[in-house]
Amino acid sequence: MNTSNNDFTLNPYIFGKPIYKIEQLYGREETFRQIENNLKTNIKITLLHVQRRIGKTSLITCLPQFFTEEQNGFKFVTFSFQSYKHKPRTEILDHLADDIAGTIGGLPKEVRELADNEYNFFQLFLPKIINEYLSGKKLVLLLDEFDVLGEDETISTPGKYLFDWLEQVVNQEEKLFSILVFGRPLTDIIYLEKFLEKLKKGDRKPIEVGLLDKESTQNLIIKPAKEKNIEYESDAINAIWHLSAGHPSLTQLLCFYIFNNSREKGIKKVFHDHIDLILDEAIEGGEAVLKGFLEPLKDNEKLFFRAVAVAQNEVGENRLKTNIKNWQSVGKRLVKYGFLEEQEDPIAYKIKVELVRHWLVKNYPLSDEERLQMEKIPEKDENLPKINNNHKMPTEKGDNNSQGPNQIAKFLSLFVVSLIIVIPGIYSLSRIRNSSNSIASRSECSRFLQEINVALGDAKERSQVIEKVRSEWSRKEESLDLQCPYNYELDRKYNELLYHYGWNQINIGEYDKTIESFCEITEEYEKFREVENILSEWIFSEQKLSVENQEKVIGAVIEQNQSGKNCLAYSFISERNKNRLFEQQQKLSEQKKQARNESLYQQAQERIKSFEFDKAVEAYCQISEDYENFPDIQTQLQGWLSGASNLYDDEIEKVREKLTQLRNNCPGSPLK
Q1: What is the Cα–Cα distance from 348 to 496, expressed in whole angstroms?
Q2: Domain spanning 212-285: CATH 3.60.20.10
Q3: Residue 207, beta-bridge partner list
Q4: Which single residue of 115, 368, 410, 457 could bond 97 by disulfide (Cβ 3.0 to 4.6 Å)?
Q5: Under DSSP, is residue 10 helix (H, G, I), strand (E, B) or coil?
Q6: Using 50, 70 and 90 to split pLDDT, how confident is the model at 411?
Q7: Which fold has domain 22-209?
Q8: How far apart are CA 218 and CA 14, in angstroms?
């Protein structure tokens, strides 16, 4: 039986894209409270280690929302180093300065230009922002993917360099804090060794973000469905917990497909059997997330991970289980990554997430050759020769000498590099979406991801990529994430690209291009509310922009809305928005006219002082009738012609000639 209840048809589970609203994020309250406590107890640098594929973007996006308006004494600026692995420090800080300026809004150009080198960024730009532009609030730099900048202890490593600067400047500036987010174990980051030791001595430690506990997982399962009149029996909840182990993305994945099945069949109560029915479909739909557990690993780590998956399902002692116990160095690394947990028997290790084990066994079973390869105990960090087998075990496409931990954190960067190597030439987005149900191939989307990542790190590429997206990919009918359902977060990254490009253009006075970019940003983007506020300030605040630039902004917003594109951050769908904008446009036009009148009036006074009465007439004749001194101008011109003033005859004649010449274009002329 199918239901016609429209509310019931909307799937409340969020899979394949970040969560942007804190009320939809479950199980991270304790993490938020720990961060809040650090900030309120004046801990200037907070280290956050977030396990891979655990919902880091959602966590970072929702964190500022935890601080309510009433108690919020903090201004958060979020910045990701994901695309900056090989960028010079000056470029990294320049883009960070753009984000700070964008978050605050309305920053004078001369203040933004203070961040023209590394020293000035930390010693001039940041202090000025904190002391003059935050209205007493404290600045929190929320810096994601910090480990991408390198882990070495040499000063040439951007990670070490920026960390040292941050550690120095947060101690200098009372109202500056920093939250550094790492995607790999902090003990792998060499330059953090002394800092971690200081934390330990102070009885403090970094904040770890991993799997959800059972109660939080249960809330994630039950609460979204409750509004849709669907209930879960306890055996169904336990089955989901058994499969996902509290992994938020995989819990959402299972519930997403359970809900679809329930909607299709009119099921109102979910039992254990319903989970079995959707399992294969969910695994197929969650391929991108599941591959995230395998793709970044080195070859020997992949083989070991798969071997544990197979051995867990085998009964009794055998050679494979014995060999697994002997691969201690590899096993301990995977425990460190959070992929495995140690146990006594029978094989010393267990895959933490059962759904991942299920997927590995189904898609990557061990060949006989691979079982033999497990006989050899690898040396520390030794890689394996490539195996040509029918199971197509994913192999790394990077530097074979790089360490396992590096691979995990740097997967996206290596993925981009591999695409550059494999794909010759420049990728052309050679398809236009004609169907609302069109889904691009994985290779198309991977190449698209590459272009966006490159453009995020290189300002010169941004305009070209944005134009390609506008002409060859459409977000009007369908989001990029729906067109590319491979968990690439294309909408978030494209929104970020539009945001950066907009600020690039405003710095050179290209307001129309800035507005076009800002208007295209969708409401799911973490900085959408900030963009809304920026546009409102530019339109309505007299302190932010000159009247001329305000008019440019208003004209661009009107053009976006009237061209059929719709400016999402200031939309004419709201009649109130439309009316207010046109009222403001009229108000600015009036202000501009009166400012011009005043300027012309002052010009006329200067001409009179120089006895250039004909030139004064030229200025007077350009003044409109609604100017406050217009009656005085009429009286003065009449007096000049009548001889009631002290003008000489030749001066009176020049005034008369000029008024005659301008008779039809002089509102105040007595000759009209």
Answers
A1: 44
A2: no
A3: 48
A4: 115
A5: coil
A6: very low
A7: Rossmann fold (3.40.50)
A8: 15
